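User: Second chain of the day. Same drill as before.
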Amino acid sequence: METRGIYIRGAVEPATTRLAQRSSILYGPAILSMLLAFLASNAARAQAPALIEMQPNAPSGAWVGIVAVGWQQTTSSQNITITVPFYHEPPASPATVSAYLTTSIGPGTTVANQVAAATVTIFPSAGPSVGYILFSGLNLAAGSYYIVVDTGSLGIGWSGNNAGDGVLSAAPGYTYLGSYGLDGLDQSGYEPGYPVSPLFGNPGPASLNFEVSTAPPLRFVPMAPCRVVDTRDGARLAGFGPPSLVGEATRSFTIPNGPCTGIPANAQAYSINVTVVPQGELGYLTIWRTGETQPMVSTLNSLDGEVKANAAIVAAGTSGAISVFATNNTDLVLDINGYFVLASPGAGLAFYPMTPCRLVDTRAGAPQTIITGALQGGMSTELPILASSCQVPSTAQAYSLNFTLVPPDPVAYLTVYPTGESLPIASTLNDPTGTVQANAAIAPAGTGGSIEAFVTQTTDLVVDINGYFAPPATGALSLYTLPPCRVLDTRNPAGAPPFAGTINVNVMGRGCGGPGAVQAYVFNTTVVPPGPLGYLTLWPEGNVQPVVSTLNALDGNITSNMAIVPTSNTDVSVFADASTYLVLDLLGYFAP
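Assistant: Same format as last time:
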């Protein structure tokens, strides 16, 4: 349904509809409840407290072209995120919706004193739908502000007269100024309050709502890999073991209360490895912070029913919990290797991005790296990261890595852990089919800055690095989480062909958030290839393509991998060595 800023549930659909290009969310009581829950959950979110919230209204028979809401703040706000859900009519062809953050509103489509702007593309759908526009990374001084959404000829939902509309909550220093609607579709001017539309004769406030919230900077605390959830293990702590996940249902896990000690109740996000052990086809699995509405994205897919793993950075929700939804019955394993806390003196490690660089390649004939020769099954192999030519500093205490197995036969699992520590009960990557398989991981450093790689069967290994975590110093970056948002889906519009070769993606221009100061993005990357895909690589736009890979899909299956991608201009480049569709979901970013 979108390419920019509108969320779709699930990165990819089951096999029978895997190349479907559109998804619509019909309005009605269910959607109204969803939006109310979305706003209410954000009000309680500790790491992103709501400042102002508007109550949404379901449309009741009338549509307008432009609506606006306003507020006044008596103090400045740093790193503000504004989320704007809105109802809209189904377009006959792709239509552009524009949104503006401004200090004043004017007649027609003229918007004066613009602070920020965003656009999203709405694709044809079966009926009225709900869309989202996101502004983030804003620093706002004291004063009056308005969010204006202009759909042009496409209508925004207009509700009936409802005296209960307005502010749900407002933090001290913030005052709701009112909603504004265009008088009909003639775009002759804005009218405040409850204007009567001459075209529809249906008075009511604009069905536009918004949330203003703060997203604080976070820093990383590494920990030895630990299994926090395993739904196959009946001996685990209650709530972190059986039963299996039931299809089309959600289950939540309060991570600080789990079996892995040392995770504080005030942890703001977790670095985890998500593994599914499906009981058949698994359309998709989505993981997100508890207390929020399920986002319209996915974490991984297993259409062939095989064991699959994917790394994820997941923001903590209510009581530190995270929620998981699966389309089909599956077992779930969650391993944690660290968490993020609020940035403060002496708390956590900062991130330092690097141009992607190859640390390890054990394949015969490959350029020499820090080790040579295949990894032997049933054994751990030391990877001396600091000895590489990638110039990783000795101050690094954890690494952002991508691991790729190139096995002659199936490999049950790969486990990466700090040198000097015992082999943990955790896994980094599974390869039950013996194909080339990749997965990202944040790997804590051990003795001498080294890490260990244990494999159950003999295999070649490729390891690429894109950054590291070290004590704050010059160039230090913090993590800022975002509501998961779809940056790119090359399946849209309907009938679009797959691409091969290089494309550039203007991430900031897609309306998903992040300031111009972004220096690295956190993506969930999913490919939907029509046939074998040797590899796909992401890297900073404007740089020479590095000799690294992000993921592989030689079996032609839908494949996902988390990727931390540096950027110098808010753009990233993507190369695919064969035809594929690509879905990029933005989870957060690193910035000063």
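The chain has one helix and 36 strands.

User: Great, on to the next one.
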